[in-house]
Amino acid sequence: MSDGQSGLVPGAEATAPLAKSLDILTDRRKFLLGTGLAAGALALGRPVRARAAGRTEITFASAKFFGKETMAQVVDAYNQAQSKVHVTYVELPPPSSSTEVHQALVQQLARRTGTPDVFTQDVVWIAEFAGAGWALALDQYFDASVRSQFFPGTVAACTYKDKLTALPWYVDSGMLYYRTDLLEGIGAKPPETWDDLVATAQAIQKSGKADFGYLWQGKQAEVLVCDLVEVIASNGGSILSADGRSGTLNDEKAVAAVQFLADTINKSKISPSDVLSWDEEPSRQPFTAGRAAFLRNWSYVYGIAQDPSASSVAGKVGVVPLPHFAGGKSAACLGGYQYGVNAATKNREAAIDFLTWMSSPATQLHFALQLGIAPTRPEVFEDAQLGKEQPFMKQLKSVFTGATPRPVTPKYAQVTLAIQSGVSKALVTGNIKAELDAANAKITSIVAA
Ligand code: GLC
């Protein structure tokens, strides 16, 4: 696969294909491990390669991602692939600790010291960071011909007031994992509506083949907003009005959707009350341990679920779009992280060179294969190896590209906390309408101001 972005940056070297960089990395590690040196360096999370004189030093802060490889290893591969720039990687908490990652970045960026030079950001922070003047506009470095190589929706999500203030990295969307063997066992098809899901989950629970019917994420955290966007949109509702000036969280459709979530615990009993304190990983674990029929989660779960060393249900897992209400349409929340360059960086050229490499087709393919995160370049979706290892990605391409965004506003940090707290209270107390009325009034006061 060719790197369509090489040569964009004046004076930048063409970047070596990632596979080649990784070979070098592997050989070097083998050598270092032989001498007993690498183990210590890796345990401390420090890059294996010593800094080389004459290189431009930049820092890169990102949430922690995990899979068959770590972000530190990918950054290390870049350091070895060229000789002009050295990147020091600063690891933040995982994306499920969204509030903490956001706080760490805001504290750094607001100082305007230029550190970190490059960062990754959740798709929901792009407007805030751009609005505050913390993110460098990237239009001149990634021109229209480069931008056209990414899905238009991800470029739109990276654009604030007509400026490209972020660069697409990966696209995430919620999806429904199910146990193929359990569904076949009762002659059921993957559900299309929430009613279908309830009926199938109950039948499987009744047969004694699974403790839980449906696992989702109800913890008072960012992921609750994601689950909420999906269930509300699948009933034709929304969180904000079309003009973004007022909340619609207490409309009939939204209330019915939240009632459905509460009912999964108290009425249909397809979900354990533990879901109210679970985010992604705690909800994923019982599923891959074979205890549940259905799970709502992101794409990273697929690789784990199909890996016999990590899962007791490998080979028995299917993925389909999430169900919808009768008369509604399936909806997936738009997630994913994107790259950003600190507006105060003193090392623009080095930052752009690094991002050119990080966003290249070869690196995107590597992230998809090793970390299970979906490319933002259509051509990478077509890769044969990806089709073999992660077939659901191509099958669900329209789910990724048609995902529903969370409210797009520079005030998202305040809006999300109001949603998380209000919806969490609604689910815990069962006073759905009253709590959503209160949360909606708060949301309106934030976005109307
Ligand atoms: C995933 C999504 C991200 C979302 C987070 C919530 O990492 O990619 O957009 O905010 O989950 O936990």
UniProtKB/TrEMBL annotation:
<keyword id="KW-0762">Sugar transport</keyword>
<comment type="similarity">
    <text>Belongs to the bacterial solute-binding protein 1 family.</text>
</comment>
<protein>
    <submittedName>
        <fullName>Multiple sugar transport system substrate-binding protein</fullName>
    </submittedName>
</protein>
<keyword id="KW-0732">Signal</keyword>
<dbReference type="Pfam" id="PF01547">
    <property type="entry name" value="SBP_bac_1"/>
</dbReference>
<dbReference type="InterPro" id="IPR006059">
    <property type="entry name" value="SBP"/>
</dbReference>
<keyword id="KW-0813">Transport</keyword>
<keyword id="KW-0574">Periplasm</keyword>
<dbReference type="InterPro" id="IPR006311">
    <property type="entry name" value="TAT_signal"/>
</dbReference>
